[in-house]
UniProtKB/TrEMBL annotation:
One of its GO terms (molecular function) is acyltransferase activity. The keyword Acyltransferase applies. SUPFAM superfamilies: Trimeric LpxA-like enzymes (SSF51161). NCBIfam families: NeuD_NnaD. Keywords: Acyltransferase, Repeat, Transferase. This is Hexapeptide transferase.
Length: 201
């Protein structure tokens, strides 16, 4: 029963991740899909969340969307109804024994989390991203494929670090901010900002 999950959103990458990590996918909740997706039953949409709880409330939910804003919206919808959330970690990820990972977080293949790093709740760490020592990754953050966070970085709530971006040591990224793909961030980024380029501006 502890391994029974329902996916919030049909996404084949996360289906494969759950299979690798030994989870039993009971169904998918997605308003855009019908019947089945990659062999798994589509059991309803977000509008059915309250009704579905009576049959599926013991299953943990897996947050598949990449968007921090959408993940936060889903948690705010499902959590008050009594649902719990699964943390899904690829067996091909490397996580320091001195670091912690929060509830409802997705960690894909090839991710590295170095020592003394804190990963918050409902975070998504995409394939091959590298989070080095003494980072603080706040709730709902997304780090895209191949991004690199060097040492002693703080990333604020619901921010997005784009693919192949590099954040230099001791930089602070504010809440609800976006770092563009391939950017090199050399100084702090305020809340609600979008930065891109080399160096990022």
């Amino acid at each position: 029963m502890d391994k029974d999950v329902i996916l919030l959103g049909g996404f084949h990458e996360v289906i494969e991740l759950c299979e690798k990590a030994g989870y039993n996918i009971v169904g998918i909740i997605d308003g855009r899909l019908r019947d089945s997706y990659f062999g798994y039953s589509v059991i309803g949409s977000d509008a059915d969340a309250e009704v579905l709880f009576s049959n599926y409330g013991k299953c943990k939910l897996v947050l598949t969307p990449d968007s921090p804003k959408i993940r936060e919206k889903l948690v705010n919808l499902y959590k008050p109804l009594g649902y719990d959330f699964a943390t899904v970690i690829s067996p091909q990820a490397t996580i320091s024994k001195f670091s912690t990972v929060g509830k409802g977080t997705i960690i894909q293949d090839g991710v590295n989390i170095s020592a003394c790093t804190t990963i918050g709740n409902y975070v998504k760490l995409n394939t091959n991203c590298n989070v080095m020592h003494d980072n603080v990754i706040s709730d709902y953050v997304t780090i895209a494929p191949n991004a690199i966070n060097l040492g002693r970085i703080t990333v604020g709530r619901s921010s997005y670090i784009g693919a192949n971006a590099t954040i230099l040591p001791e930089v602070k990224i504010g809440h609800h901010s976006t770092v563009g793909a391939g950017a090199v961030v050399t100084k702090d980024v305020d809340d609600n900002k979008i930065v891109k380029g080399v160096p990022a501006k």
